[in-house]
Design brief:
There is one protein chain. The protein has 332 residues and is an alpha/beta fold. The chain has a single domain, classed as Rossmann fold (3-Layer(aba) Sandwich). 43% of the residues lie in helices and 16% in strands. The chain contains eleven helices and 13 strands. The strands form four sheets. Strands 3-2-1-4-5-6-11 form a seven-stranded parallel β-sheet, with helices on both faces. Strands 7-10 form a two-stranded parallel ribbon. It has a two-stranded parallel ribbon with strand order 8-13. Strand 2, helix 2 and strand 3 form a beta-alpha-beta unit. The radius of gyration is 19 Å and the shape is globular. The N and C termini lie far apart (41 Å).
Length: 332
């Protein structure tokens, strides 16, 4: 039976769908193809899926936050597991467009849980974010940490998603896994992310804006490692056994960090981009932006213990891979 992947034209959704199809599964992908970033990039991802996997890939252009449109589209389709990766992303954008986040990340999350509940899905895996840690000053971030002080509306919606999922796991015994992604990068990535923005500017000979005066650290996680973690979680739903799970729930609901377990200085990532691009970057140092955190660092001990997750791609290898793909995609 097929797996339903929301955000199927997005960065992580594209790669998760490919991994599932590469091992012989069928995927139904949902996406509304909004214009938060290049719609052409999303269409190019979809075209690659169709070319490489044919009838194993079904795409539906629908907004999962619009219940009236969503339910009729799904009515006659057969699928069991759901990987809910679709969301309105971006910390800074949430300050300017708050209603988009409430609609997509809250209403949309509820709609997809309702789909899972009605169909008695065997597992509902959903995307959370390292942004939920907010102003937490204890590093590395652990799933046991309190996450009550989000610094952006985006972070608040992701924390709310975790709370809603806990409720559904308790009331309906719906098996769920929430994945707190750290900074994800790699081929077919997002144009609003720093690595893409910096690469574009460096190759064009334009200055890059380095926020936090360059004194920031990120747990950069390569897309292949992220997908390995997502699929491992999907294949191993939490048991409804009354025992405490990662994140503290005694319902069939757990939370995992998925990161590289290495906090890298932003300036090191930039130096690797310079080397891969063959050009020096003109850096324009900027203050911290509202909603941003200075450091991220994932404690991945829970997902290592439960699922054997061990990231293998460091930024020394991952950054050049991204730049090679970027040049190829843009023909430069």
């Amino acid at each position: 039976m097929a797996t339903l992947v929301t955000g199927g034209a997005g960065f992580i959704g594209f790669h998760v769908a490919r991994r599932l199809m590469e091992r012989g599964e069928e995927v139904i992908a949902l996406d509304n193809l909004n214009d938060y970033y290049s719609v052409q990039l999303k269409r190019d991802r979809l075209a690659r899926q169709q070319a490489d996997h044919g009838s194993a890939f079904t795409f539906l252009e629908v907004d999962f936050a619009d219940q009236a449109s969503l339910n009729p589209v799904l009515e006659d389709l057969e699928f069991d597991r759901i990987v809910h990766l679709g969301a309105q992303a971006g910390v800074r954008y949430s300050i300017e467009n708050p209603h988009a986040y409430v609609q997509s990340n809250l209403v949309g999350h509820l709609n997809m849980m309702e789909v899972a509940r009605r169909r008695r899905s065997s597992h509902f895996v959903y995307a959370s974010s390292s942004s939920v840690y907010g102003g937490n000053e204890s590093l590395p971030f652990r799933v046991e940490d309190r996450v009550d002080h989000p610094l952006s509306l985006y972070a608040a919606t992701k924390k709310a998603d975790e709370l809603m999922s806990e409720t559904y796991a308790h009331l309906y015994r719906l098996a769920q896994t929430g994945l707190r992604f750290f900074t994800v990068y790699g081929p077919w990535g997002r144009p609003d992310m720093a690595m893409w923005l910096f690469t574009r500017a460096i190759l064009a000979g334009e200055p890059i804006e380095v926020f936090g005066e360059g004194n920031m650290r990120r747990d950069f996680t390569y897309i292949d490692d992220i997908v390995t973690g997502v699929v491992a979680a999907l294949d191993n739903p939490p048991r409804d056994d009354g025992l405490e799970k990662a994140g503290g729930s005694k319902a069939p609901h757990r939370l995992y960090n998925i990161g590289n377990n290495v906090s890298e200085e932003l300036v090191r990532m930039i130096s690797l981009l310079e080397e891969a691009c063959g050009r020096r970057a003109e850096k324009k140092l900027m203050p911290m932006q509202p909603g941003d955190v200075r450091d991220t660092y994932a404690d991945i001990s829970a997902i290592q213990r439960d699922l054997g997750f061990r990231p293998s791609v460091r930024i020394d290898e991952g950054v050049p891979r991204f730049v090679r793909w970027y040049r190829d995609y843009h023909g430069i």
